[in-house]
Specification:
Layout lengths: L3 H16 L9 E6 L4 E4 L15 E4 L4 E3 L8 H10 L5 E5 L2 H9 L19 E2 L7 H10 L5 E4 L3 E6 L2 H24 L7 H11 L13
Parallel strand pairs: 6-7
Antiparallel strand pairs: 1-2, 1-5, 2-3, 3-4, 5-8, 7-8
Helix pairs in contact: 2-4, 3-5
């Protein structure tokens, strides 16, 4: 089976999206790219993560042409491919409908540096304009809206996180959901203090060396 390790990782992290309450049912989507082979593994359309099997994960090329699998790819294949074309540093994309991040997106708010953990995205989490799901317009909005950040809100839709592997994209989505909740709660009772740019620059410098070095068995 082509890209078996990547397919298994998509199944595993799809289930983690459910247990971490980042989505429900079959909501959202995940992908991993193999740039050397010119292939992308992406979750299928409309299959609940609790029922997903590795063989259900679809393989396409970078033009979106079907390569292998028994299902239709996610309806959001377009913005996954657009992100891979726009950002050579990105190897994995994860899209969620997490409640607090989606609430921010429905309010039309970016998430500022209300907490230093916004650094998982960058200086903030920007907001991409609304477009109908699965359209070329949405793909353009996502690729342009994310800029150099690792996460972007999709207006009236959800969150997209990217990373050098699926584990890091998932961690970004999870931490940004926490920051979104903090921001929502802080704004509910007052005016939150936003960290200045110079402090976020220090945070991002420290994030660059945070954690353990990558291992060969890390998630692809």
């Amino acid at each position: 089976m082509m890209m078996q390790q990547q397919r298994e990782a998509i199944v595993r992290y799809g289930c983690k999206m459910l247990t971490s309450q980042l989505t429900t049912g079959s909501g959202g989507n995940l992908s991993i790219c193999d740039r050397a082979a010119g292939r992308v593994a992406i979750s299928p359309s409309g299959i609940e993560y609790s029922d997903l099997q590795a063989r259900d994960v679809v393989i396409t090329d970078f033009d979106g042409q079907f390569v292998e699998g028994r299902c239709k790819p996610s309806s959001e294949l377009g913005f996954h491919l657009a992100l891979y074309r726009k950002r050579p540093d990105v190897q994995a994309v994860l899209h969620t409908h997490s409640v607090y991040a989606t609430t921010m997106a429905c309010l039309g708010w970016e998430i500022p540096a209300v907490h230093y953990l916004v650094g998982f995205s960058g200086h903030k989490v920007p907001l991409a304009p609304y477009a109908t799901f699965g359209t070329a317009e949405l793909a353009r909005n996502v690729a342009e809206g994310i800029g150099a950040c690792n996460a972007v809100l999709l207006a009236n839709h959800g969150l997209v996180a990217v990373g050098a592997d699926l584990g890091r994209a998932f961690n970004t989505a999870e931490e940004i959901e926490l920051v979104a909740r903090i921001y929502y709660q802080a704004r509910s009772v007052g005016n939150p203090v936003i960290l200045p740019e110079e402090e976020m620059n220090r945070v991002l410098e420290r994030f660059a060396t945070y954690g353990q070095p990558a291992r060969e068995d890390d998630d692809v």
